[in-house]
Design brief:
Layout (H helix, E strand, L loop, with lengths): L4 E3 L4 H10 L4 E5 L5 E6 H12 L15 H19 L3
Parallel strand pairs: 1-2
Antiparallel strand pairs: 2-3
């Protein structure tokens, strides 16, 4: 098994590109010293999309550890942008 890593500063697009192009389900997030600080999974991305697009649903966290702050806000911004594009007819 091959593990893939991304920096805490990596844009969401980089993390998603790794997930898709390598056909994997998680990318490990590392700090400047290359120490692990978190993980982003396909489930994290889907959970966030549901939360943004259908806030009335209570999907919970499923016990998963939260993504690092920068990445979590990047996920939220990307999901919000996707929803805005979808509703504007883009």
């Amino acid at each position: 098994m091959h593990l893939l890593f991304a920096s805490c500063q990596a844009p969401l697009s980089e993390v998603l590109e790794k997930i898709v192009s390598h056909r994997i389900h998680r990318v490990y997030i590392v700090d400047e010293s290359e120490c692990p600080v978190g993980v982003v999974t396909c489930t994290d991305v889907l959970r966030l999309l549901v939360k943004v697009t259908q806030p009335e649903l209570d999907i919970g966290s499923g016990g998963a550890a939260p993504a690092p702050d920068g990445l979590a806000s990047g996920l939220a911004a990307a999901a919000a942008a996707a929803v805005a594009g979808e509703t504007s007819g883009a």
